[in-house]
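Help wanted!
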Amino acid sequence: MIARHFGIGLAIVFIASYALAQGMADKGGTDKRRSGTQDMGGVLQKMQDDDTANPGMLFVQLGGELWGKASGASGKSCADCHGSVASMKGVAARYPAIPKGADAPVDLEGRIDLCRTANQRAGSLTSESRELLALTAYVAHQSRGFPITPPDDPRLAPFRARGEKLWQARQGQLNLSCAICHDDNAGKKLAGVTIPEAHPTGYPIYRLEWQTLGSLKRRLRNCLAGIRAEPYAYDAPEYVMLDLFLMDRARGMMLESPGVRP
Amino acid sequence: MDRRRFLAGTATAIGAIVVLPLGTASATPEAMAGAIRKVVGASQVREGRVSLDLPPLVENGSTVPLVVSVESPMREADYIKAIHVFNEKNPQPNVFTARLGPRNGRAVVGTRIKLGDSQKIVAIAETSGGQFWSASADVIVTLAACLDEAT
Amino acid sequence: MANVLVNAPKTAKRGSIVEIKALILHPMETGFRPGPNGRIIPRNIIERFTATWNGTEIFDMEMSPAIAANPFVSFFAVASESGTVGLRWTGDEGFVVEERVAIAVE
Amino acid sequence: MSRPGLLAAALALAAPAAVAQQVDLQVAPQIVGDAIPASLTGQPGAAARGRAIVANRGVGLCLLCHSGPIVEERFQGDLAPNLAGAGSRWSEGQLRLRIVDGSRLNADTIMPPYYRTSGLRRVARNFQGKTILSAAQIEDVVAYLATLKD
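Answered by r_m:
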């Protein structure tokens, strides 16, 4: 019974803190946006919130090990330059962003890989590899509870605008756009599954359907396959543009990484 | 969106295990009854003392939390020595068997299971005195386990 | 690259009952699923999870392919004496992982 | 509202690219008003086969968005009108056009075009040049929906 009470207590604390956080983000009290978490059953919400039950935390832990491990020709680890991972607080809430000296935005995975190739002088990590997901989860976890705050960089505007166009564009054999489902029909049932508003609050997410952790890119590819559209190449800039648009659309909402989703 | 195709794939896979020396081709209510009989032998199984905590409706069958709790003093003279869980529609009827004793203090086991479809789950507890108690629960699965989408 | 998350109290009152929760990274491949090439992906599961308290076995669980990927197990134990809780997962393809946590009993 | 020649021309243009449904694409549906009165195959469809197509989420896809009087299929969608009574609301010809290409009646419809291969963007490689359903399948679905009277 102690455990059960503890669990209920945790859930109450979570719901309360969540409501508080959302309330703070919503100064006018009119924000009706819903994180995917709010569309899940209580069981999955509890799984996400309990760090000893959230399977995404296995990857966060693994990311912690990698953080301290020297890699590449530099012989340095992430920790050698950045110190404690606490230095990463709030970072995930600001990505995608344009790195110094570059002229196009990268997502958080891209930024980590850039650090790896340019600074550690190590090999690039493959999309969806355990290492890249683990490091991303470790960094993103530091921003849990932070409001999404896209940077005020005017250079991002055209990329974000292209992301919005992609979001609105019909494609695939089924001739559907992201917006048709996730803007116009969110909250309704697609074959019994509630269509979420698609806010990128929990990435990387532990998706039960995947039975592992995955990135927003993987999630976008799933939707593209669903409407029978050709997925963009793994290194395509379209994913970053969509990410930029979605993060702006979710501005002020709280990060929950690592999220659990059905 | 093309989940049925994968379901069909799963069905083929279930068919394929007929050639494996596993004894059961796929779990059915009958196969589950057979698996339970193997555990309990000729003993009577009574309903009660066991509570099986599963969400009645799950969004995805790949990871379904389950807790079995059994009323027991968990003392040398009287304890739960095993908890068995069965299902009727996965490829095989056995889910897990946990062995416990007085050192546990409490006859409670939690884990997460896969459900290939909406189905009935049965938990059976075996007491140190050789009695069997059971509980069952029906779970509706919106999305079955073992599916995948092209990624 | 085994990865385990164990949750157990660091201290406990003598005679109290504590909960131990453990998560381990493992695909729990059922052996019933076809892969991208249409062939069945070979079974690769954890078959057994065992817990000891100062070397004495206190809990054991036989797993099947129906246990979800990245298995989670929770159980209880009487905090009888200070010591080490040993957790051990064994399975297909020679999988063996051991983890220890210390619990101080006051 | 109806531009029958355009759809026919579009389908004819798309035909050479098609493989699986090539035969179907030689069919040029004739739109009259808000309907395609004639069967795409020249034959009536079979309602029982149509029901199976509607019920199959990987083939007809219908129950992903619509609910319908198919009791054995749980978890039906609610994005789109219930299929019950479709046969009272629409004639066979009206149903046929709504399935073939509902955008001919409402450019903003979310109903996918089941019998069109032109004007689609970024179609996945394995579906390129193919229609969602064949002409014969559409006739079966039309025959089934026509039986759904209130």
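OP: Thanks! One thing I noticed: Chain D touches chain A at residues 57, 61, 63-65, 74-79, 103, 110, 112-113, 120-125, 127, 130, 132 (CB under 8 Å).
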